[in-house]
Write a structure and sequence with these properties.
The complex is a heterodimer of chains A (291) and B (291). Chain A has a two-stranded antiparallel ribbon. Chain A is 73% helix and 3% strand. By secondary structure, chain A is mainly α. Chain A is globular. In chain B, 71% of the residues lie in helices and 0% in strands. Chain B is built from twelve helices and no strands. In chain B, helix 2 packs parallel to helix 4, helix 2 packs across helix 8 and helix 3 packs antiparallel against helix 8. The longest helix of chain B is centred in the middle third of the chain and has 27 residues. Classes of the chains: A mainly alpha (291), B mainly alpha (291). At the A-B interface, helix 4, helix 9 and helix 11 of A face helix 4, helix 9 and helix 11 of B.
Chain lengths: 291, 291
């Protein structure tokens, strides 16, 4: 029973981790809490849905299609709503991201209507495997595998490519990096593209797993992924993964204990506790007070 | 007179007044003291629920209910203020957001608050005169606070917390004080709202409500009292005046926020000092005013 819940938690948590990565990367680079990220996740789920319905695409094609679409969306949003605000106060960028979030969720609502829709059942042949007393569905295996693969890919990009190196440099010191000849705009666009693509993959996976896609799903999922990012230490990529998994497990445990109406409160109680005990999160860098 | 003061216009005028009170409260926390709070709706909900329960269950007079709601919100402001003092900037914003979500989930799950169904019927006591009397009292109080010793301490904390501390300002004490006063206004606004709409429901006090109030402060110009009043009036009127575009109005609202931040990042009246403006226009000499 315990291992079963742990597994379910890990499945949900890996999807949260995918979304949390986008928050963490954007925060790490331009210290912006990107509230529109939850909406990118929602758009990703809808693009996947459209592909699955109209083109009868299988799960891999839907995920890749959603990732590409959201990658473009992320870059466009950055260009229109955040780039002109690069030099103004951080609060203006925050408000602008809230504007984007309202805009996108309303747009999808106008196109699709406010109701919740389901993914077609033929998208994945869902069979159950038994490992001792634990049940695991094919979908769960795929969710964990796909998330792990994407995160591994991200790790490789950040650690071993030239643009990854530039990303790390910019997050270390924005001005010094630009003086060293790094094209800041390109790096920020790339960060938004990667973060949005990961959120889109998370959106499709969550949409299939819970079998429900709605235009207003972005807000609560975004807030939860955001808590996951803070829990792990905002700005830290391994932290976001860890935070997502811990949050997923905590939530599933709450549901298993019959307290499902408290799941949101649990996510935020963990968040508050972490902030009070260790404000930088589990894997965060210490804050420096400059005098 | 009926043409101007019909039910529809009265309704809008009253909500404008209520939002002015709440936005001025947030302006004190965020605009004047510089502590970004994303949980203002929580204080509003505490005020609304406390006053509603007092009116409904105990049948005490309206004034008592208003005061109790505001004081209860203020009490919670202090309660939140204490543990979150160690946090600054974004971390404080996240903590207040978490607090607001926890309050909302508790309201949904508790018995005496009516759960997800909310509370009704609350006696309809709020009218135009009471609201605008309180609006003027709050505006007057805000001016008095800002130009007092306490207000200057708030401003010092906003400008540079470390320097303020070094000058002997007890930053902790003043930050709690700002939270308490801001929450008082939010609670007062919430209590007026509850007794006007006569029905309250936890959904009304979600994350988007906090954001809406924050938008009012930022749109008008942070730290500016006339700015906050204009911001609150404009954003309360915006959904009404955009009614001709009906379905698309939230789309416009989102786009409007982005455009405003790009073209006027400090808000409409950010950095505009009315006293200086008046002196400049009428070519008065500041020193002759004895200030």
């Amino acid at each position: 029973m315990f291992y079963q819940q742990l597994l379910n938690g890990l499945t949900v948590g890996s999807a949260y981790a995918l979304i949390a990565l986008g928050y963490t990367m954007v925060y790490g680079i331009i210290t912006l809490i990107n509230f529109a990220h939850g909406e990118i996740f929602m758009v990703g789920a809808f693009v996947g849905l459209a592909l699955a319905i109209f083109f009868k695409a299988n799960i891999f094609v839907t995920i890749i299609g959603a990732m590409v679409a959201c990658m473009l969306l992320g870059v466009v949003v950055e260009k229109i709503a955040y780039r002109p605000l690069r030099r103004s106060s951080r609060l203006s960028a925050l408000i602008s991201s809230i504007g984007v979030s309202i805009f996108l969720s309303t747009l999808v609502q106008l196109i699709r209507g406010p109701q919740t829709t389901n993914y077609p059942t033929n998208i994945i042949q869902n069979s159950m495997y038994h490992l001792g007393s634990i049940q695991i569905s094919k979908l769960q295996v795929m969710m964990i595998l796909i998330s792990a693969l994407l995160m591994l890919g991200l790790h490789l990009i950040v650690k071993y490519t030239k643009i990854g190196k530039a990303m790390r440099a910019v997050s270390q010191d924005y001005d010094a990096a630009s003086l060293m000849g790094i094209n800041i705009n390109q790096v920020i666009s790339f960060t938004f593209a990667v973060g949005s693509a990961l959120a889109a993959a998370g959106g499709v996976l969550v949409g299939i797993y819970f079998n429900a896609v709605a235009p207003l799903m972005g807000l609560s999922a975004g807030l939860k992924a955001f808590s996951a990012a803070v829990l792990g230490g905002i700005g830290s990529i391994p932290g976001a993964m860890l935070g997502g998994v811990i949050l997923g497990i905590a939530e599933i445990t709450a549901i298993a204990l019959g307290k499902s109406s408290y799941t949101d409160a649990i996510a935020f109680s963990i968040l508050l506790l972490v902030l009070l005990i260790k404000p930088t999160g589990l894997l965060g860098r210490p804050i420096q007070r400059k005098v | 007179m009926d043409f101007i003061f019909n039910d529809y216009n009265l309704r809008i005028l009253i909500s404008v007044g209520i939002y002015i009170i709440m936005a001025l409260g947030l302006n004190l926390i965020t605009g004047v003291t510089g502590q970004l709070s994303l949980g203002h709706a929580a204080f509003m909900s505490i005020g609304a629920y406390t006053s509603a329960l007092i009116s409904m269950k105990l049948g005490l007079p309206f004034g008592v209910a208003l005061l109790a709601g505001a004081l209860m919100a203020s009490f919670f402001g202090v309660l939140v203020g204490f543990p979150t003092l160690r946090l600054t900037g974004d971390y404080l914003a996240i903590a207040t957001l978490g607090f607001a979500e926890i309050v909302r989930v508790l309201l949904v799950n508790m018995q005496f608050t009516g759960g997800a169904l909310g509370l009704s019927p609350i006696p309809n006591k709020t009218n135009l005169y009471i609201v605008y009397l309180l609006v003027f009292v709050v505006i007057f109080a805000m001016y008095r606070i800002e130009n007092s010793r306490v207000g200057r301490a708030f401003l010092a904390i906003r400008e540079d917390e470390i320097a303020a501390e070094a000058m002997g300002i007890q930053t902790t004490k003043y930050k709690i004080l700002a939270f308490a006063m801001g929450a008082f206004c939010a609670g007062l606004g919430g209590a007026l709202y509850a007794h006007y709409i006569t029905y309250i429901n936890p959904i009304d006090f979600g994350f988007m409500k906090s954001i809406e109030i924050l938008n009012m402060v930022v749109l008008g110009g942070m730290g500016s009292i006339p700015g906050t009043i204009i911001g609150a009036s404009l954003l309360t009127l915006a959904p009404e005046t955009l009614r001709f575009v009906d379905e698309y109005r939230m789309l416009f609202y989102g786009a409007m926020l982005i455009a405003l931040m790009i073209f006027r990042p400090n808000g409409l009246l950010g950095g505009v000092n009315f006293r200086n403006l008046v002196f400049k226009t009428f070519k008065l000499n500041r020193s002759s005013q004895g200030k």
